[in-house]
Amino acid sequence: xxxxxxxxxxxxxxxxxxxxxxxxxxxxxxxxxxxxxxxxxxxxxxxxxxxxxxxxxxxxxxxxxxxxxxxxxxxxxxxxxxxxxxxxxxxxxxxxxxxxxxxxxxxxxxxxxxxxxxxxxxxxxxxxxxxxxxxxxxxxxxxxxxxxxxxxxxxxxxxxxxxxxxxxxxxxxxxxxxxxxxxxxxxxxxxxxxxxx
Length: 197
What we know:
Elements: H1 2-12, H2 19-31, H3 37-42, H4 44-57, H5 63-85, H6 99-110, H7 113-125, H8 133-145, E1 159-164, E2 169-171, E3 179-184, E4 189-191
Parallel strand pairs: 1-3, 2-4
Helix pairs in contact: 1-6, 2-4, 2-7, 7-8
């Protein structure tokens, strides 16, 4: 039970991180063709370059706003460091917990939109860093269980394994290049709209 409280607190610490930082992080890591995000972000030179890219992408010129972005980046990196060694990143959470613990975590997380944004970021991170594949897979499982809006998402090149997506609704989502291994997709709904013309 302590692991679960710890996990919720860890996920909830994302409440101050703006979702545009997640987006800029994914774009930068893809652009730089990074395969180990923490190693890349812990390098001071890379971190400075990364910070400048985020500030440009967010159109931030004010020193106070810049300091706020630095704090948010540090929080994001601390979350990733903690998650890397957490059970969440190593065990299948749709099977690895007792149902009562899982339901409590989902209920608490459902009330927090920022946790949903962090979980989507973790799913996208699977397309870049293989050390976060199980964590990203668990994140997608939690998003489905939380009934988070997953429509119109770009999930290109994600790698998902050892989880369940039973009852998920991925209307107009892009899964080009994505890989699924040992994933229960019973009752999964994909709706694709074709353009006429």
